[in-house]
Amino acid sequence: MWYSTQADRVFTDAWHSDSAIVSGESLLNTRSKAYLSLRLWYLRVNVIQARDLVPGSKDRNPQVYVKAVVGDVILRTRVSLDKNVNPQWNEDLMFVVAEPFFDSLIVTVEDRLENNMVRCLGKCVIHLSNVEQRLLPLPADPLWYNLEDIVFEDGMDKEVNFFSKLNMCVSLDGGYHVFDESVHNGSDYRPTAKMLWTAMIGVLELGIINASGLQPMKLRDGRETTDAYCVAKYGPKWVKTRTAVDSFDPKME
């Protein structure tokens, strides 16, 4: 038996004295934890047009499209209806990205050849930390980006001084809420940008006391048992109670 308060530095260990039957890495998972959801932003890439592309052959009309990559997500525009070296698209590509912005937006302009072959006509890399953050639903300023291309010459890489260009509006839209949970069970509908949040009206305190009549979920040493815990979420914060080991009527307190 242990008597003290939650302010005692050994409270965490004493509170989990009933977890002695759990060993190894699983013991760490029996303790209570608090999590904060990542702040998610919409990354809007409005691909407008390209200029002075250099196709591989002048004997055919180029079938040009734009591919954008952020992390493991790849999005593509349609093939431009302009079969020339100055194609236009005016098409939006939407990504969801999370803070902190460690990733980069990689944009390539590609020419679709026969037999499902593709030739890269140029590439630009934009770090997300350098992208404009918008709070209002206003269009971002279009910018011209150089499309870097590498020319292979006698087995060596040679950088050229001439650049094709790509016109785009790239922005992080903070005036919207990015859903990361079911719409029907959502508890947070605020926009991403903190400047648009309403003022706090109070503090919500939740006490999870106990549960009763739980069903067995596993077998341990040939008998049915349950290791139960509760999860609560409000806004961006998730809270997990301690795990009550081997009990159908757990007390969380």
From TrEMBL:
Q: Which domain of life is it from?
A: Eukaryota
InterPro entries recorded for this chain? C2_dom, C2_domain_sf, C2C_MCTP_PRT_plant, QUIRKY-like
Signal sequence, renumbered to the chain: none
Where the record annotates domain C2, the positions are 22-145
Q: What name does the UniProt record give this protein?
A: C2 domain-containing protein
Q: Which organism is it from?
A: Gossypium lobatum
